[in-house]
Amino acid sequence: MSERAADPREFEGYRRVDGRVGVRNYVAVVPVSVTASAIAKAVAADAGTGVRALPHQMPLSPSDAARTQIESVLEGVGANPNVAGALYVALGTEDIAAEELADAAAETGKPVETLAIREAGGTEAAVGQGVDLAETLAETARKTRRETADTSELIVAMECGGSDATSGIAANPVVGDACDRIVEAGGTGLISETPEFIGAEHILAERCVDDEVREKLLSRVERRERMADLMGVDFRGAQPSPGNQAGGLTTIEEKSLGAIAKGGTTPLRDVITYGNRLPVGGGFVVMDSPGYDVESVSGKVAGGAQIVVFTTGRGSTTGNPIAPVIKVTGNPKTFQRMHENMDVDASRVLEGESVRAVGGTLYDRIHDVAGGTLTAAERHGMAEFAINDLPANEVATLGDPT
Amino acid sequence: MKGETIDDAAIRMATADNVVTALEDLPAGRAFSVDGETVTLVEPVEFGHKFALTALEPGDTVRKYGEVIGTATEPIAAGEWVHTHNVVSTRGQPGDDGGEGNSNGTGETDLNGNDETEGEA
After folding, report:
1. How far is residue A379's CA from residue A366's CA, in Å, rounded to a whole number?
2. Contact across the interface for A248 and B67, Cβ inside 8 Å
3. Considering only alpha carbons, which residue of chain B is nearest residue A312?
4. Residue A209 and residue A238 in one domain
5. Nearest CA in chain A to B10
6. ipTM
7. Which residue of A65, A183, A215, A316 has the fewest C-beta atoms within 10 A of its own C-beta?
């Protein structure tokens, strides 16, 4: 860890009843299954600004382990402090009960409603009732004023997608520097994408605060490696992906060593199951997630992250419905070509600017975004959301990770 | 992780590394001065790709970030492009049958990628 003094910054956020601080003030319309996704989108579209849908593809009757994971994510997005109020929409025949999700999200003290499409009398009636409920929640949300908070109240999730060789030498070290600054200021820094620890897990293991956390980390990495084996995936073909390879990444070890740079250098406090709530009180934390970036981001936002910092060498445009996503690229050609989708140019590192200086720029930007500045993804209405599925055969062979 | 740039056109991430990363598209014949030695590229190396600083034999470890990133599968000369055609991972090789898994390594688009990398990490 660096020797510099902690540099906490203030920003204006939305203080929730449970004391947590949101950086956005949304009403979340959360479908319980795929059968309610289109209606959730219609409700959000008709209800107007500040109402965001989180459509997904999960079925009516998932397997037990998958169900636990889906419930955790759906509860978590409703509980996220960026959400002022939530509406859970179900067809009404799901194994997962909308009321239970609503009760869990309502433990934060925020208003939460439910809507059953069959009880409402079909699509049009459900959309109509949903819009009414969402507008009432939005009215309550508008009464929340921004008030002063600081870095220690932020959970910032680090992610990468579309990696190339610049990710590990420029963008990820810059994000790692910002992650260190957040943790040093009392906030929480979070990385995930466990398959991208393979070949670099010994470095993260050395950073674990105790043996229990170390064992948890190593067993989760081993499980991801065995999962690839189970699926018949040869890492040499699939990881790094063909796109990663075209960008100059040769092996999974090389990709992983570059990827974990996003997590900076501070002690690793805990390893959390996908979609579960993060511990309070700051520090550097790992969430066990798949490498698929949209699912990984969704899991971390369900865990409570208010802001996502997302590095991309080859260019990615994705956002999230309820959390601002800050795009950082270390590839100068990507920054030029996809300028409208990028927030921070980390390619300056390749021209000789220090990682620390550009990390400071990113740290500033994180607080600007916390205070309301829109990210490129937000300006373009990018709002991807997806929940990681847990196939029954995987759970039968490798055990239940939930 | 802070690298050391070499002649403003390549970066070495740690002093123990035996490969460095090109910071621009480099032509064959381009010479670099590294630790008092001259390394001359024997072939072009694209931006983001790696070349060897020293000669490697099959089975030798390839180092970047001061860590092992793979094993050489054939002789590699100093100044030669180092990628999936001559290096293999030491990890994640279920039912290893000797190298078929490298077939996806080439034939992609240019560096900025108009391919379908969206959704990949």
Report:
1. 16
2. no
3. B121
4. yes
5. A350
6. 0.85
7. A215
